[in-house]
Amino acid sequence: MMEGLDDGPDFLSEEDRGLKAINVDLQSDAALQVDISDALSERDKVKFTVHTKSSLPNFKQNEFSVVRQHEEFIWLHDSFVENEDYAGYIIPPAPPRPDFDASREKLQKLGEGEGSMTKEEFTKMKQELEAEYLAIFKKTVAMHEVFLCRVAAHPILRRDLNFHVFLEYNQDLSVRGKNKKEKLEDFFKNMVKSADGVIVSGVKDVDDFFEHERTFLLEYHNRVKDASAKSDRMTRSHKSAADDYNRIGSSLYALGTQDSTDICKFFLKVSELFDKTRKIEARVSADEDLKLSDLLKYYLRESQAAKDLLYRRSRSLVDYENANKALDKARAKNKDVLQAETSQQLCCQKFEKISESAKQELIDFKTRRVAAFRKNLVELAELELKHAKVEYVSRARWLTPVIPALWEAKAGRSRGQEIETILATTGNLQLLQNCLAVLNGDT
Amino acid sequence: MAAEREPPPLGDGKPTDFEDLEDGEDLFTSTVSTLESSPSSPEPASLPAEDISANSNGPKPTEVVLDDDREDLFAEATEEVSLDSPEREPILSSEPSPAVTPVTPTTLIAPRIESKSMSAPVIFDRSREEIEEEANGDIFDIEIGVSDPEKVGDGMNAYMAYRVTTKTSLSMFSKSEFSVKRRFSDFLGLHSKLASKYLHVGYIVPPAAEKSIVGMTKVKVGKEDSSSTEFVEKRRAALERYLQRTVKHPTLLQDPDLRQFLESSELPRAVNTQALSGAGILRMVNKAADAVNKMTIKMNESDAWFEEKQQQFENLDQQLRKLHVSVEALVCHRKELSANTAAFAKSAAMLGNSEDHTALSRALSQLAEVEEKIDQLHQEQAFADFYMFSELLSDYIRLIAAVKGVFDHRMKCWQKWEDAQITLLKKREAEAKMMVANKPDKIQQAKNEIREWEAKVQQGERDFEQISKTIRKEVGRFEKERVKDFKTVIIKYLESLVQTQQQLIKYWEAFLPEAKAIA
């Protein structure tokens, strides 16, 4: 069943250019441009075609493509995290795993329940589910792309060797997903880290800037998490309301075909209207999902990455202070002074390096965040407006033909035609409103 | 126009006059909702009348008087008889004993109507003159509102009292505007009285609102939360719709019980509408017996119209039920959407607070406000969904059940007729046997019995035909009503959707500059 949905790529080329960089405002740099030009969905994996255009000397060609899977992205991300050199940078958050399970389940249930509904209902629902699947597909592609673009745009990270291998090596990187043992290790590491984080965060920072950032980020992260969850729920209820319109539309259609009186034409028309409404509402909820929920989710992950940076910095500060204390102790005892001195030096260097880059990173983070929010909020408002207007006009337009048709029966054609001409000549919303007022109020 | 109309039973003069009357006024002052069905409907003369008043339930009686003159005669005759006859008491009592008591007055009337129809034209003209007078005079309507629910009493004996206000210019009411206080069981009592009088003769009596033990207990206990207020509001609206439908019915409007219900300030407590009373149990037993009977009666349907209609109603019932389920789901989801939007608004506000970039912070707070307003919108829309659409559907589902009940009564009537015929046959056989056995006194008795049963057979036949005729007319009326109702409500509902969109546009337009202003 999934194979039939492999026409994902076609959709990608049309609409997806707009989806790029949805959450992050990125400057495209001539030196290194990365994007995902194609994607294929197979049984349980997604294969991304990563396309690179570069004028950097360390690549063999100027333009090339490789096929990568999700695990390879994760490998790349983890290699950044584990690299000590990058401790002072915000590591772009890893893209979430492509999750088609929910969609797949629904499609399966639909297949099972095929016998119990009419043909029209079945085709409608199938279309709906396919559209949903496609939307999830597009989203996951976009998120992977954003990750790569962020790395490519970062002045330091883009020079990473692993990244270049990732982009260029056109055979399988033979990266396997973490096995159980490694996952368990990870789990413990995380626990230790969070405990440590608590201890470390108790230490007050000398630098005001960082202190402020820390409190800010903590609060912000929590609130973004909350907002993201709520926004998710809202989008989902919106979608289920839109689905209901679908069912109402088909019931009305059935009523319309059942009935023998002339109300059947009326019912059929109403069912058409509900169908249109449903499409618009579904698009509204999809747009909301994209602009709002995704934005919040992305910044949830980014703020987590920023928090991680702060944690690393605090960790290194604590290490530095410990090294100082050790040095003092060594000097007092006059034992291993040199060793203590070198370790203290190292810690000092490390700390300073991190602090410096961290400051810049955090400032960049803020700029990026503000820009992304602005872009998305503006687009969200514009889309909502567009849809609301379309829906309004389509409904009003639907109502008016019904009325003239009914009036013709009694009083003659004049009034109905009046309204029609007004609508036809001016798409003006204001005028439309006036018309409706006329219809509702008085002759 | 006149060509499209099927001429009323007797004479054509009246309707044309009526129409001339209407054309003088501007017909389309009213809202979209009073628009009528297509011109092919058989009684367009009624349409002008409907458009006069802005009230969707008002104009019905005009049409009624016009087309159902026969009914009126019938009704009046019934009234006259029952006012005099001692059978008045059983009718007014709340004992819905099945079918027997009220039938008797009808049987007395039937021959009278027959004779009356000879002189019918005279009576017709007279009543038409009356109608003309009334039409020339006030607007012939009746408007009912149910309002002001208040809680009376305390604890488990508490109940909600509703104010029933009637505004009318009908001459049969003593005042033109009056109101009384009624409680829910009064409504149920009215319905059971009307049902016992009219259902079995084939009139479709609108069903009353449903009892709800859970809902009422919450109210009694005094929980002042939103669910109990919602329940009271839902019930109030349902009672109002019930009364409006009942008065729209021309025959029921003439009923003295209905008048008493609307007018008199004190009403005898209808105790046997309680679920656990003796009458309640009797009702349940009867219902069970009916169900069994339905399965065993095999009726020879000679009239294809009835079979077709029954099938139609079955289908309609199913479709409506399905639609109702979908609409309820929509109501539920919209409520959910509203709750989630509110939660998100709060969350966005908090996010805006913690954001340290001032312009972004302001924009986020604005977003929160917009979402909150949208949440309000969604809530209102949910109410509209519910009260207009969903309740209409459940009303019609119950109405169709009543229609099916009427069809069942017809079947029972036929059954009685059949039984009478069979008994007659048996009596004749018995008589023949007596003749052979030569027992003079028994023969006499047999002859008497035969005469009795012959009369019963004739009566059964007449009843059956009467009920068939009534049902045809009622179903026609019901269909028209249904078409009008649905169109009205759906258009109103769509208009509400349009309003919502308008508001949405306004809100987002206000937000857009704020979002653009983020530096």
From TrEMBL, chain B:
GO molecular function: epidermal growth factor receptor binding; insulin receptor binding; leptin receptor binding; phosphatidylinositol binding; transferrin receptor binding
Membrane topology: Peripheral membrane protein
A Pfam family recorded for this sequence: Sorting_nexin
GO cellular component: early endosome membrane; lamellipodium; retromer, tubulation complex
SUPFAM superfamilies listed in its UniProt record: BAR/IMD domain-like, PX domain
Residues in coiled coil: 436-470
Annotated Low complexity bias: 27-50, 93-104
UniProt keywords, alphabetically: Acetylation, Cell projection, Coiled coil, Endosome, Lipid-binding, Membrane, Phosphoprotein, Protein transport, Transport
Domain PX as annotated: residue spans: 140-269
SUBUNIT field: Predominantly forms heterodimers with BAR domain-containing sorting nexins SNX5, SNX6 and SNX32; can self-associate to form homodimers. The heterodimers are proposed to self-assemble into helical arrays on the membrane to stabilize and expand local membrane curvature underlying endosomal tubule formation.
Function comment: Involved in several stages of intracellular trafficking. Interacts with membranes containing phosphatidylinositol 3-phosphate (PtdIns(3P)) or phosphatidylinositol 3,5-bisphosphate (PtdIns(3,5)P2). Acts in part as component of the retromer membrane-deforming SNX-BAR subcomplex. The SNX-BAR retromer mediates retrograde transport of cargo proteins from endosomes to the trans-Golgi network (TGN) and is involved in endosome-to-plasma membrane transport for cargo protein recycling.
Family: Belongs to the sorting nexin family.
Name the record gives this protein: Sorting nexin-2
Organism for this UniProt entry: Homo sapiens (Human)
Lineage: Eukaryota, Metazoa, Chordata, Craniata, Vertebrata
